[in-house]
Amino acid sequence: MSDLNVDELRRQVCTLHAELVRNDLVAWTAGNVSARVPGEDLFVIKPSGISYDDLTPESIVVCDLDGTLVEGDLMPSSDTAAHAYVYRAMPEVGGVVHTHSAYATAWAARNEPIPCVLTAMADEFGGEIPVGPFALIGDDSIGKGIVATLTSHRSPAVLMRNHGVFTIGKDARAAVKAAVMCEDVARTVHIARTGGPLQPIHPDDIDHLYRRYQTAYGQR
Amino acid sequence: MSDLNVDELRRQVCTLHAELVRNDLVAWTAGNVSARVPGEDLFVIKPSGISYDDLTPESIVVCDLDGTLVEGDLMPSSDTAAHAYVYRAMPEVGGVVHTHSAYATAWAARNEPIPCVLTAMADEFGGEIPVGPFALIGDDSIGKGIVATLTSHRSPAVLMRNHGVFTIGKDARAAVKAAVMCEDVARTVHIARTGGPLQPIHPDDIDHLYRRYQTAYGQR
Amino acid sequence: MSDLNVDELRRQVCTLHAELVRNDLVAWTAGNVSARVPGEDLFVIKPSGISYDDLTPESIVVCDLDGTLVEGDLMPSSDTAAHAYVYRAMPEVGGVVHTHSAYATAWAARNEPIPCVLTAMADEFGGEIPVGPFALIGDDSIGKGIVATLTSHRSPAVLMRNHGVFTIGKDARAAVKAAVMCEDVARTVHIARTGGPLQPIHPDDIDHLYRRYQTAYGQR
Amino acid sequence: MSDLNVDELRRQVCTLHAELVRNDLVAWTAGNVSARVPGEDLFVIKPSGISYDDLTPESIVVCDLDGTLVEGDLMPSSDTAAHAYVYRAMPEVGGVVHTHSAYATAWAARNEPIPCVLTAMADEFGGEIPVGPFALIGDDSIGKGIVATLTSHRSPAVLMRNHGVFTIGKDARAAVKAAVMCEDVARTVHIARTGGPLQPIHPDDIDHLYRRYQTAYGQR
């Protein structure tokens, strides 16, 4: 494997964990970011149970696509098997993020998808944010649930029932963006609905917004 | 155009974006501030998709009142057409702000104006904060909806349906203040109403408060 | 007047405004702290419409107990008349704070006192936090409403209807503490009640807690 | 007693109070952390009514297991008797934390346990977070209520009715973690339930998650 490549990804993934904290997506140590090593059957991920304050690029560990530790002094995140499954099943995915962010997890605790009633949600998620099945940690159940749900929706985010959020992206930064936007829309739609009935957006308008945003937003 | 004037506005608009972050009005890159260049058919605005951390005065772009890029290395905000329309239609406006701040956007997701039940709301908004029409990005629809709604209300803020907030001011700082106060009253009135019926303020008292605040508050 | 005394109070009051910001009690410039000058018919207070970032001890102005500016280059807070009335009517009061903190103001927008269902609320407020009358700015109406309400309750905080919070204390720091605790209990009791019926505390227990806290808490 | 040991604990406990502030668990001075001195009938605890900003390792006081001040210049926390009772009754406990964190205290104000509907809650608490009895400060009532409730549940956190949260741990850091996670799940489950009925987790799954987390999470 290219050490240069891996070291750069460790730095990126270390820095991106600070975005989880800054955007109020995580409590204590409960959330993690990983990134696929391009051209290798490897990914880098947070070590288990380490405070975000104590994360360094060197502490980020390297795993193969079975989730087995390949390089690093610490045990990988307890969610490593789920990340590994996503990388095996979805070759276009370059980054995965997992959080228990409060508003998104609240929808998951009700087993209820977030309806698409905001143009920003149409832009980023292309429709509702779906709920995946209840699954226990310890085997491929969580990974299978994530992949089965995401491959049948445009959304880069899935709410795993009674658990929390997994997001994907072309790289780790895109997956972090999806995690931030998921909590933002989960919160806004929750607040909106506690005040009364939501105003729907027509599916054609959602399609229009999604296609435009995916091609025209940001710098080329 | 006066380079001195434009450079100073770029610095101001760059700094004011930090107020959007500090006041919790924006997630990721979703919000923007613009300022009209006095005496010119130009305004300065945030580039599209750039992190607030990475904004510099130099990265702020200059557009003409059709929203066409005139100066700058980056693509302008995807909301540039809406800002441009407001500057064309409302010559007294010197600054425009757009956010998806959560509580204000929640009212917009229900297509419901925020009732004026706080003296601070009477002061700044002179009555309810109105909702504008649903409009798709890509032409003048959003700009037209903003202008049609604001020209029939005293409020410097409009909630665009299923979308978010646009505010105006004599300059960019005043528009940012309106965006901050809009979210503050959207939140307080939301919290209030989840606990029971709201106590109205008599329209004459709203008028009295609005007139006094617009003339007597702050330093002369 | 003793310049030394006044200068020290200006420093204290300047610093205490930062506590309003840190404790999320204020948006933009909407909140102010004042302190009586001991042994003089004077108090120091925030100037009107100045950002908390820009406050300096020198910018804090001095007023007499009619609310007339005695020393300082800026216009005093638009709430000066209310502060002045409290100092005239309640000689034991050494500090006054005014905010529109969101949860407390939400109760005020419903004209509803906050019921005493927390031991911390019994400690600090000795019972419910009462609501004062609706009153327009511009004369002594607000001051009269504050004093009439506070003199008939043990609470150092009053929720002025459709407006916000005024708190008093033996000095400005005690009034700031009351403002912080008022928002904290307003938020906790609001959250509690949105989930179901509240558990009352027996009035005798409230009395016991209040008396103990007022004599036994903190350092002697 | 070992001065070295006590000094190290004072430093730890001082630092851990900053975590209460950072995680938004405390307003003003209302929350405290203590740590048992290993091998001694002593514990260290916050002094009463001191601002978190002003805490230093030297200001942390030492008490015996009756709650009597043994070393230090300041009066111990007004909650010292409750901490002392826990250390006397539960020899395996090395740290105790008390807060009035808003969401957890809201459940306590309704006398309602937090149902276990999140996998993260099963992990850390092994089931619901129980409510302890209403108890007045001044004798062993609070301590007895804490111990009676915690010894009949797996949860390291108890919601004392109309009061707030007490958490325990093998050391002070573990008790702080439990306090942070308690508020996090109290908030998420509150938000979830305001939106509709909660999805339960099967008790066997809760058992499975709890056992796994207690043995397999983090670094060995």
Automatic annotation (TrEMBL), chains A, B, C, D:
<dbReference type="InterPro" id="IPR001303">
    <property type="entry name" value="Aldolase_II/adducin_N"/>
</dbReference>
<dbReference type="GO" id="GO:0046872">
    <property type="term" value="F:metal ion binding"/>
</dbReference>
<keyword id="KW-0862">Zinc</keyword>
<dbReference type="GO" id="GO:0019323">
    <property type="term" value="P:pentose catabolic process"/>
</dbReference>
<protein>
    <recommendedName>
        <fullName>L-ribulose-5-phosphate 4-epimerase</fullName>
        <ecNumber>5.1.3.4</ecNumber>
    </recommendedName>
</protein>
<feature type="domain" description="Class II aldolase/adducin N-terminal">
    <location>
        <begin position="11"/>
        <end position="190"/>
    </location>
</feature>
<dbReference type="GO" id="GO:0008742">
    <property type="term" value="F:L-ribulose-phosphate 4-epimerase activity"/>
</dbReference>
<comment type="similarity">
    <text>Belongs to the aldolase class II family. AraD/FucA subfamily.</text>
</comment>
<dbReference type="InterPro" id="IPR036409">
    <property type="entry name" value="Aldolase_II/adducin_N_sf"/>
</dbReference>
<keyword id="KW-0479">Metal-binding</keyword>
<dbReference type="GO" id="GO:0005829">
    <property type="term" value="C:cytosol"/>
</dbReference>
<dbReference type="GO" id="GO:0016832">
    <property type="term" value="F:aldehyde-lyase activity"/>
</dbReference>
<dbReference type="InterPro" id="IPR050197">
    <property type="entry name" value="Aldolase_class_II_sugar_metab"/>
</dbReference>
<dbReference type="Pfam" id="PF00596">
    <property type="entry name" value="Aldolase_II"/>
</dbReference>
